[in-house]
Predict the 3D structure of the following.
Amino acid sequence: MNLQQWLSVTLLCAMMALFVWGRFRFDITAMIALLAGVVLGLVPPEKAFTGFSDDIVIIVGSALVLSAAVQRSGLVEAAVDRLARRLRRPGSQLFVLTGLVGAASGLIKNIGALAMLMPAATQLAKKSGTNPSRFFMPMAFASLLGGLTTLVGTSPNIIVSRVREEMTGKPFGMFDYLPTGIGLLVIGLVFLHLGRRLLPERQAPITMGQALNISAYTTEATVTPQATVIGDTVASFIESQEGGVEVTAVLRHGLRAQVRPDTVIEQDDILILMGDPDALERAIAATGLALHDPEDAGQTGDETGVIEAVVTAGSVLVGSNAGRLMLKERLGIRLIGISREGSRLRNKPSGVKLVAGDILALQGILDAMPGQLSQLGLLPLAQRQIRLGRKRKGWLAIAILAGAMLATATGLVPVAFAFFAGAGLVLMTGALPAEDAYEAIEWPILIMLGALIPVSETLQTTGASDVLAVELADMAVHLPPWGAVALVLLISMAVTPFLNNAATVLVMAPIAAVFAHDLGYRPEAFLMATAIGAGCDFLTPIGHQCNTLVMGPGGYRFTDYARLGAPLSLLVLMAGPPLILTVWPL
């Protein structure tokens, strides 16, 4: 190899060493590599930022926004909640959760599918008395396997598709990955169900929000004409919510009606409900109740949110109520819930006489609320996500995602445009507030992708990929075809825990393509092996963001991943080459 080729290989090896060292964040490491590439003359300064205009960056960012919109709709969570009534054993719950996250990961980016179903897994664990750590890691591994089934399931598939287009003029289609991916997914799901006992029992640290343990909120909900509970009894309504919500009072025509199990719910009734904030939110959203008065519907904008605060002894609210102080009219703050330890409140939250120590759920403009809380003598609590008071758009996000998928699958528009348009539509229609969209985008991942694309291209521009491919070809000259494919799969799987799945395929895909050419084979099987290997990091929490996502909530240690992941990696290595060669003959 000449000097430029040595410099290119050395730069990539040094970058991998920085990833393994962990001294810098992965996005900072990618930036260091890009700067070094420019300084060494491997990346022309005028092309240093071409990676940020690549379609991959647009697809990944847009997919995360769409995933957040689907998650906010609550439909997937509601479906799992219904399953919970039929699934009581942890084994069956795990099988359904891993199956759902695996299937969803083929439709949206796997990290989005995982994030969308983790709250549902927490609910199932709570109801069955199971440690959530028993669910999270298998779900993360299932999301990796599910991401192998379609073009948009994971970043490596998108990158490999582009490499094939550069070589043959034809990219991989949306469902070209399905035959091999679905086979590996089924094998993986069976193993995760049977091998779940390999995972040690771990306990996640208790957060400040969990330590507060505020669960007995009281709120009011209006029975709208569209509510599905009209004509139901109070007992049947409580049963449909599995006892998570209690009806403490019914206000009818301004008067308090007697609450008995056989009390029939009528239109325009005001139900005083008590329960956990999430249970209240689910009950209101699922039954078509309104948390606020009908004439106020739609007035809350993207800038509004809910904050929990405690009434201090010196608060102006002590001895009075929100209605008398006209909090909504004077400050634009709505009291949507109140919690008082040891008490079952039977009045509207706005009509309850407040005492020091009451916990309030207040809805208003987030930027203005800190000053308003200080003015009222309220102390904000530790931040935690509370969805009570947030509107849902139901099927809108699902419909937009389905439209983007259909447009891509039929070839009507390119993948990048379809998903970018879908992300724009969920913002324009209000299916996802703009603040939530920007929060959903994993900017470090996009920075890493944009910085690594020109760095990885130095292997091709300097000719280093050709030299490395020749070396691999010499190693594989005496191997059978399945052995050559297995070698590429093994190398990709070995590299991705220490690099990153997207970075691995950026480096390995060009080498695999030239490797196939040198052996006289078609490139598709080797590119598929690269994508599968880069997408299957089951050994560490750092090779893929899905593994990183569950590490904290599951309370896992670094070595826990290999206990469950090493046997799964071996299964993929054994089953992968035959599946690939069956669909993509050499």
Residues 231 and 265 are 5 Å apart (CA to CA). The first helix runs from residue 3 to 21.
